């Protein structure tokens, strides 16, 4: 919940010293010729870097890395660095598959002297056998950006990152890191900000040193909850920065004996953590959303309304990507919090500067997508949202009139659980198709795949706008929403998990302690340090206010 900038155009949010890809012209490199990139070796040596983290993320958002000494930077630049893909995480690989080779994108080079002297980070694109690996989230987003570029459009994204700062007490119970943070209405509390001054200013200083344009840092609505905002940029750059920001926030918190968790709902009685995305389309350097002649009064163009129409049309399926964990639905399903508001939408509606909507229109330049949370993979979230919006544009969808609370109550409900969201994803060829980009993994991909919504026996909706318990399925295999084998089939067996995704990877599935897994996404808190997870404290909290994570056996997970 950043400082309200609804009255200001997006250009007003640009930092004083703009980054390499200035927000004023957020054109992805896929859409327009870019200047000759700097040399990674020259950048690293010029900054006195001794080691580089070569980073990519898996489908669950886990950052994977190798620490490369500067003496080998030319090898990294020219040939990349190899990983055993199956061991790295959810990447659609088997143990027998060839290595994943991470090739650095020099435009993402990020020196990190505030983390460790001589350390830098560079985001990478995974390749296999010399080709971009189609299960890699960064590769998936690049593909959607190319599709938008074919229409002369580029996507700019701004992300709001919310998180909790916690500590473990002497008896092992989890509590907020600031013992004085007990106010009934802690949002924007100047005293709470001051007590966390050292951490917040360390993060802010790092963001501004990197040219991100940090413009606000605030205490959020929950005790122990904070948000730190930075300027928007093209979609790929913002997704990179979300991953880097989670890493920065977590490491800098650890330096002060705290744990930063981006888990959607670590405490039952407090507001959950979202990841709201501010989306805008551009034609070159010109914004495509504003239109002063808008008869609906929001100042939006027909293209903007069609984009909104696509997001609303596919809202149910989008939630499987924006809110991809069991814990996510403890946030969206909350009926009350200490502060009196949940700030999470329950229905697929849109309107003006009203934070109760799934889509908020704070001004004529952008649309805020409020369904996402801290467990979302930013690359997949941006890709899925863009796919939905482009479908709306291609079909000239009309979202209807912007709604107040009464009109929103008539809009369709969002999925109440992960199972319902995955059911919606399985029945939505547009959103699933944006992620299902890997032909040849078991069966050939075909175009024009029929929707599972029309052929599945039983649907998750029993009446317009109402969700019921998920239908019985002939195939009891649980779904993993981001790891699906390409298949021309429709119906209840169309979206089987990839062979590398064993039952332990499914959120809430199986009879094991989810915190024993190495992937932080099991409990909804993305790992913050490459190769490690920070989900254990929220999941294993013994305090009475910590949200339990319900476990379902495979025999009951798909029952109605």
Strand and helix map with partners:
Blueprint: H1 40-46, E1 51-57, E2 63-69, H2 73-79, E3 81-83, H3 85-88, E4 100-104, E5 110-111, E6 119-128, E7 131-132, H4 137-150, E8 154-168, E9 174-176, H5 190-195, H6 197-209, E10 214-219, E11 225-230, E12 233-234, H7 235-254, E13 259-261, E14 275-283, E15 286-287, H8 302-313, H9 315-322, H10 328-332, E16 350-351, E17 359-363, E18 366-369, H11 378-395, H12 405-408, H13 418-426, H14 429-435, H15 452-455, E19 461-463, E20 466-467, H16 536-539
Helix pairs in contact: 4-11, 6-7, 8-11, 9-11, 9-13, 11-14
Describe the structure in your own words.
This protein is α+β, with helices and mostly antiparallel strands. It has two domains: 40-133, Glutamine synthetase, N-terminal domain (Ubiquitin-like (UB roll)); 150-437 and 450-458 and 470-539, Glutamine synthetase/guanido kinase, catalytic domain (Creatine Kinase, Chain A, domain 2). It has helices at 40-46, 73-79, 85-88, 137-150, 190-195, 197-209, 235-254, 302-313, 315-322, 328-332, 378-395, 405-408, 418-426, 429-435, 452-455, 536-539; strands at 51-57, 63-69, 81-83, 100-104, 110-111, 119-128, 131-132, 154-168, 174-176, 214-219, 225-230, 233-234, 259-261, 275-283, 286-287, 350-351, 359-363, 366-369, 461-463, 466-467. The strands form three sheets. Strands 8, 9, 10, 11, 12, 13, 14, 15, 16, 17 and 18 form an eleven-stranded mixed β-sheet that branches. Strands 1, 2, 3, 4, 5, 6 and 7 form a seven-stranded mixed β-sheet that branches. Strands 19-20 form a two-stranded antiparallel ribbon. A hairpin with a 2-residue loop joins strand 14 and strand 15 (286-287). Helix 6 runs antiparallel to helix 7 (235-254) and helix 9 (315-322) crosses helix 13 (418-426). The longest helix has 20 residues, at 235-254. Residues 2-32 and 438-560 have low confidence and may be disordered.
